[in-house]
Amino acid sequence: MKFNIKTIFAIILITTLSCDDNFENVNTNPNQPEEVSSDVLITNATRSSMNSMVTESFLLSNNIAQISAKTLRSEVDEYNWNAFSTLWLQQYIALTDLVDAENIAVENEQVANQAASIVMQSWIFYTLTMAYGDIPYSEAISGLNSDNFTPVYDSQQDILDGANGLIARLDEAINLFGQTNLDVEGDLIYDGNTSQWVKLANVLKLRILLHLSNKRDVSSEMQAVVNNGMLFSGNADNATLNYLSSFPNDFPLFPLKQGDFDAVVMSESSVEKFQEYNDPRLGAYARPDNVTDLETFDSPAATYSGAENGSETGGCDKGGSRLGARYYDYPGHPVGSVRANGIISTYTEQELIIAEAIQKGILNGNAENHYRNAIEASMNYYDVNLDTFGWSSFSDFYDNSGVAYDNTLNKIWEQKWIALFFHGMEPYFDIRRMVFEANGNSGFDVSALPFLNVPCANQNDGNMPVRFLYPGDEQSLNAENYQAAVDALGGSNSQNATPWLFE
Question: How far is Cα 384 from Cα 382, in angstroms, rounded to an integer?
């Protein structure tokens, strides 16, 4: 992080007070409101946080999860990690808007906006603690109302599962939504619909509880969420940001230079799995190597390839199809009419969470029904063309491709891995959890997960790193609390230091 977030506020305050006494009179715009409304802050924070998550999916999580692969600057794939400070900085900046939005909504009795702000904060804090471990949480955002510019790092356990942690905050939001008939103002996700926000809050609870299931019994809580009926019922409930074709709502990757986009291609791991099943989603995720027109993307004549993760080093396969038309307008290629969405969560993810929990005995129910629902919803979300891949219907694909449920956890994991493309940081978080469980909850050897490959020329003995490093500036700007967080990790700000979730 370039600046600790409280230090940013301090600099602003000091700069303001050092100006001459007439500054306020000279520089006040009489036509500008003194207080920004909560809806404006929610809109801004949603767009900025989502844009950041899309970018980090492209640069980090999709590649760590081996859905895609980096062919340049491939430290990510090679497991030679640094702080990845942009995620920390951009998400804490978005949190300042969301905390302000919550406070303003409370003052103005805008209950729906208060609740939506809490849900968005919960999603972002979840992302940060899952990436880094212990992080500033309870004291993270207080700005000019406090002289504390060195916030403590709360424990990951308290953040995820404590009395004032994320599950409790999501419950608070759900209760608030039940107290109002008014829409969420400034809402880019659900156009104000509070019922949809309640569903999202419940799906995020299921996501967190599944991650917690290796630490404690979560069965009663998960079953209560499933039983209450306020969950996604189809793709219409997906929590996504619909990008358009122009600034400021264009998909964040479209402005990239050609060289930046070429640095990420489809991975060998994912292309092999798509081809094993003759899965039509390959035509949405990737553009064929023999591009001629848009119809080629999902045609039997299309040829696809995948690069080995960690392929920048000599001796590794650097091939790999470029990402699909929805992700980038590639020079000299046909232009797709569909932009990819920013994704918080989907019906597909929800159904695979439930299927996994049933398969593990955490929930009651029919795991195959949810598993099948998930795959069909994923196909529909990407609007795939089954016919051109030789399938007469989804049932034909499900029954005859090899994807049919076989009562194993690996089958569920495999489909979730495929489906989480560009779901923020969740591809990394979920693959890390799967690798951990595949190693008997005692290690991160990637080879334990059958559909992944040990990255070529990896620099971490084939072990997936457990966390991102804290940004370097934290050591100087928040030294005491930074050191306490490092001590809690065993004394090293290392990519292999074990956060609470994996102790």
Answer: 5
